[in-house]
Amino acid sequence: MKRKIVKIHEEKCNGCGLCVNACHEGALELIDGKAVLVSDAYCDGLGDCLPQCPVDAIEIIEREADEFDKELVEQRMKERKVQQEPLPCGCPGHTAKELKVRTAPAVVKAEKAETAPQTSQLRQWPVQIKLVSPNAPYFEGAHILVAADCTAYAYANIHQDFMKGRITLIGCPKLDSVDYSEKLTAILKHNNVKSITVLRMEVPCCTGIVNAVKTAILDSGKMIPWDFKIVSTEGNILEN
Is the backbone peptide bond immediately before 134 cis, with ω within 30 degrees of 0? Predict the structure, then answer.
């Protein structure tokens, strides 16, 4: 049958996950950092997800599609229920979780010794992606760290393990209503950047910062070595 249904423009999607949480039928999922309509039968075509998308990657179209199946949706939503309840916003990144602070043996030993406090490895100011100038002299010949805001609070040794020897840029793809790829592309085009390391959190909305770096490298037309690391909410580095 021909009916109204959601269409997602993959090239625009930044992986923030807001549409996934807005869909009451569970028709959308984040797959490989992009929102995907997993089944026509789950989508009622009403478009509750549309106003949540910050990059206009969703529209309602008319096409041949399976009929909306309310019984299938109810079954799916029961299967998706989890024991841990998120806060009212529904975003996985907002899920309430109490973290247990663990002290490693090496840290205990260091605390007992009389050692000097660690020094900051921040090499420039400003640090916000949306505030830096692409023509700033510190970008020339630099190794760049592009980090999600929350990583500095989750990963205890970020200064020594990631910021040291790098120019640090930070941002939050969910809260900043800007396209990071445009600024990052300008930085790469105007400078001889040696490498880029991306540090993101494990929550879905953080995928956007990785996608912005990918887009910037492609749009710059340069072959720039890059890599990304994922930090868990417990402060560990996860396998990519």
Answer: no
**127 secondary structure, DSSP code:** -
According to DSSP, the residues that pair with 200 across neighbouring strands are 230
Q: What CA–CA distance (Å, rounded) separates 213 from 131?
A: 17
DSSP character for 130?
Answer: T
pLDDT tens figures, 12-35: 888 877 888 788 888 998 887 788
133-147: burial string, b at 16+ Cβ within 10 Å, e else: eeebeebeebebbbb
Name residue 168's beta-bridge partners: 145
Span of 13-22, 51-60, 83-92, 191-200 with lowest mean pLDDT: 83-92
Dihedral sign from CA coordinates of 6, 9, 15, 18: negative
Q: Give the total residue count for the chain.
A: 240
- What distance in Å separates the CA atoms of residue 208 and residue 140, rounded to the nearest whole number? 25
User: What is the model's pLDDT at position 103?
Assistant: 52
pTM: 0.61
